[in-house]
Amino acid sequence: VLDSQYGMYVWPCAVVLAQYLWAHRRSLPGKRVLEIGAGVSLPGVVAAKCGAQVILSDSEELPQCLQRCRSSCLMNRLPHVPVLGLTWGRLSPELLSLAPIDIILGSDVFFDPKDFEDILTTIYFLLEKNPQAQFWTTYQVRSADWSIEALLYKWNLKSIHIPLHSFGADKEHLASSSLPGRHTIEMMIISLA
């Protein structure tokens, strides 16, 4: 997908998160996985192909992203993967009625600082409802001034940094992009503190 709008492009973070899922594929069968901000849905599709029960979600305000999720599922022979409109920071009937989950996925959701608290509010809600769950997320380092540390503390969340070399994702071809600029990718797992 060559359209570089938010949810219409396979961003390098999605490739790195997909690599993490592939490296942990033996632990995925039967796991209940929710991908937020899924867009093209590469991590969710990989999780589903590895045997996880996956739900894909993107903003209910972005119907083209929801359609992209559905298209990705169809192209990958996963026609029964549910796609939900979930908007970060908003309690909705879809969010409230979600079945239990084990893993939340989010690749490059920490893109715009104005969304950081809404994302973590949603993650906190999901983790409170599913205390053993974890949020596996990859993000591109865009500014040294952007940090979620204070928000993690505020929402009683903790993070563990996952070195890319620990799952073979430190290769240039995995995290590269044809788009201009730096593309330093990081990964962390967020859970209740």
UniProtKB/TrEMBL annotation:
One of its GO terms (molecular function) is protein-arginine omega-N asymmetric methyltransferase activity. The keyword Transferase applies. The lineage of its organism: Eukaryota, Metazoa, Chordata, Craniata, Vertebrata. It holds the Pfam family Methyltransf_16. One of its GO terms (biological process) is chromatin organization. SUPFAM superfamilies: S-adenosyl-L-methionine-dependent methyltransferases. Histone methyltransferase that dimethylates histone H3 at 'Arg-17', forming asymmetric dimethylarginine (H3R17me2a), leading to activate transcription via chromatin remodeling. Maternal factor involved in epigenetic chromatin reprogramming of the paternal genome in the zygote: mediates H3R17me2a, promoting histone H3.3 incorporation in the male pronucleus, leading to TET3 recruitment and subsequent DNA demethylation. Belongs to the methyltransferase superfamily. METTL23 family. This is Histone-arginine methyltransferase METTL23. One of its GO terms (cellular component) is nucleus. It catalyses: L-arginyl-[protein] + 2 S-adenosyl-L-methionine = N(omega),N(omega)-dimethyl-L-arginyl-[protein] + 2 S-adenosyl-L-homocysteine + 2 H(+). Its main location: cytoplasm. It is found in: Cytoplasm; Nucleus. Interacts with HSPA5, HSP90B1, TUBULIN, UGGT1 and UGGT2. Interacts with TET3. Interacts with STPG4. Keywords: Chromatin regulator, Cytoplasm, Developmental protein, Methyltransferase, Nucleus, S-adenosyl-L-methionine, Transferase.
